[in-house]
Amino acid sequence: MATNKSQERYATLSLLMPSGITLNSNSLVLFGRNQGGRNHLMAGVLQESQVATNPPYDNNTGFLTVDFEGVYNLAVTGLASKSPAAGAPIKPGDEVFADGGTYDPVSGITYNNSLDVDTGGTFIGIALDPVAAGATTTIRVMLKNSPCA
Length: 149
Fold this sequence. Notes:
Layout: E1 12-16, E2 28-31, E3 42-46, E4 63-67, E5 71-77, E6 79-82, E7 85-87, E8 95-99, E9 102-104, E10 109-111, E11 114-116, E12 122-127, E13 136-143
């Protein structure tokens, strides 16, 4: 048996927190860097609110907890493209993508993404509920790292 395995599954990881910002629990983040269009980014949801000033966690660690598996309620907009804006209905089973956001090169985390069906973004999971074209609705999204996705 291998003795160098550090974690059985990567469902929940502690990651370095980007400095000087506020990240709220239930927020989607991406971990990794999309180099060469390979799209090997992990999509996860923050488990605790991480405040830049006087954080509610052990501020000596500088880490936050991210869950990379499961189904989460996330705000998704029925858009197929942002420029020009083109509404598109989302049906259960459709792919959901993260667009925009801010990449922090020190932590490897991208935060403040918007979610939609614009294939120019980063695939993050599968919609389990519908969204009307142009509307923003909180729906269940199965993260791409989940065993079923």
